[in-house]
Amino acid sequence: MRILPKAIRLAGLLIGLIIISITLKNFAMAQQPAVFSETASLTAGSQAADREHGQVIMVLIDRITLDDFLNADIPVLKKTAMNGVLGLMTTNPAAGFPRVPENTYTTIGAGAKVQGGSSAVLAFNSFEEYENDTAADAYYRRTGLEAGKSEVLHLGVAEMERANLGLKYEFVLGAIGEALHQKGFKTAVIGNADIPGALPADKKNFRQAAVIAMDSRGQVDFGDVSARTYKYDPEKLPGIKTDYSAMLSEFLRIRDKADLVVLETGDTARIDKMSYVTSNEVLRDSRIKSLAEIDGFLGKLLENVDLNRDLALIVVPQPPTDAMETGNFLTPFVMAGGGVVKGVAWSGTTKRHGLITNIDIAPTILRYFGLPPAVKKGGELKDVLLSGQVIENRESVNPVESVKTLNRDAVFIYNARYPFVKGYINGALAIVVLGLLATALDIPVNRCLKPALVAMTVVPGILLWANYLPRPSMAVLAMETAALVVFFTLMFMYLGKTKPLNPFIYSSGLTVFIIACDLLLGAPLAKTSPLSYDAMAGARFYGIGNEFMGVLIGSCIAFVGLASDLLKNWSYSAKALAVLLFVAVTYVIAAPGLGSNVGGTIAAVAGFGVSSLLLFGREINRKTVLALSAMILVVTAGFIVYDLSRAVEVQSHIGRTIASIREYGFSEVFGIISRKWAVNFKLIKKTTWSWFYFISLLSILYLGRMLPKRAQGLRQNSPVFDKLLTGMIFGSAFALVFNDSGVVAAATLIIYGIAPFLTWYIPVQRRTRK
Q1: Looking at the DSSP assignment, which residues form a beta bridge with residue 60?
Q2: pTM listed for this prediction
Q3: Region label for 112, one of left (φ > 0), alpha (ψ between -120 and 50) or beta (otherwise)
Q4: pLDDT tens, residue by residue, 598-608
Q5: Contacting residues for 151 by C-beta, under 8 A, at least 6 apart
Q6: Given Cys at both, which of 71, 97, 444, 647 links 115, Cβ 3.0 to 4.6 Å?
């Protein structure tokens, strides 16, 4: 290939361009102002701290699933949900940390993904005995602070801070309580999930509910988390149960004092802690019975709550153990009162009807009290911006069915993602390696490997539809998927039988069409595909993920190159139409309401820009590379400006990123880069994606130089595709650099280059094509 040696020589220039692009991109982002919505969506007007406002009542019912919620006899809970909003909540703590209550509760209280560590449970009333003294004295020894009038103190706050020192972003432990205290509001916490032993000395404390109501110093104004909130009951699985009468009495005592009240019902959490000593049947039965008792308590509680102005939140911070074993990490969420209109839950974080994240609760509470989604950290003047968004409602004809479908799809994606995606990329790597060996050893296996290479380009399009296939089991779904891949592979080979590379015209063209149409329709297929993002993981919830972003760019370049070679003498107008296709695909990847993928936008402009230049016979040199750099900057800035012009709640994640950069300065740029590259390096070092990408890339770059006659044949028979391989290389390089899982995008992009490339190079019969 004539262009490839030039691509090799330009490697240094490409690296320089990437560095310049990173700097210019983040500098431009840093200049944009932060944007906050001034209109509260949950109340009729902003609320002041003079007790004229209502209260936020958060009831914690830990360790239950949506099925528990729907199947239990809980009329009060269900009525509350039907009159408010019903949804599912993600339960992720900071990346790399286990999904345990100590971490999930702390994440809710911080409004950021953090961990709590083992000390997150150490909350006590100031009068309780601890370390041969009172909890107030122990608190002073640990923090150097006086308890003052605070009734509940968290003794583990300093240790929790140390546990999160490695996080590369700003956060405030107890951000909800801290923000409320800074504006004169009061907080309270009632109840615990303790499981005392046979002797008082053996008591196990599980009082992580306090981390939601506490401030950054670990103080809560009112409440009771002591043993007075539970009583012994030999008929219960844990041997104790929550004393709901005592809980209600404590609530009535502080109802006129506290603005935020967090109530830990406790029993369902205790039952789940006993899962290792009983059967799943007994566990589920105990959970359902406890839910009925909680429902009775909630009915009495709501009799003392004015839902015309008070805001009630039913939150499940942690899924039960048996649900997590089946891949179900979402929990039910209910919000009612406070001006909330019934429907399904929605937030700007997910932009998914029925789905919110655990970091959305904090800004929702602050908005109710008329406060911005930010909190001052210690004595610093700068605000720490909360990364979540306000929870709102969206209309739904049948909220229960909508949420059930969402839960079912999320569990399917989580369970199908590993076997299907891992199987696909491992199989693709094996095919490429076999093709390289056959080429190096001059073994005529084209008839065997060509169908496999075509199938490589068919699989992504089939996986886009996988959720809509009948799937009584994963094994059946795998057979259905394999059957469809075989069918379309054979069909494309038959339609393209006249020339070796023609089958790839059909596979790449159809792939471009269905992915682009899916994005224009709101990505209903991508949101439920195993090859796409996973709501359980919480990395992305809308738009186009890195897997399909790479597929879309790669298949589009391959289609244009191969179609040009099929039609041979393309006119200037036809080439212009190809460029318009590139522009259209870039738009659907970039547009905040469609693909919303900034890294993908940069990769698309780089790949399509180089391809467009080559289509019109331009050389890739310093001048064209600088022009391409300017194009990347202009296109990216254009979509950023457009995104910022929209309301905060519908902005993509880039708006929040810009606000963070403005707040924290240029250091945040390096934080963003380091976080993204930490993920990228992990994937590069430990996944098959990196093996596939770099082997494919090196094959394209160097195989032509090793086998010049076959390279000459490809240039003569498919000259445009041969040129546009350079566009794929540039696009994959930019995808690798500008995405936090860039090696995945780079690998899926290069699939549409390596598959036709190897099809040409693998010998058809011994010594006839060299």
Answers
A1: 264, 315
A2: 0.86
A3: beta
A4: 889 999 999 99
A5: 125, 126, 188, 220, 221, 222, 223, 224
A6: 97
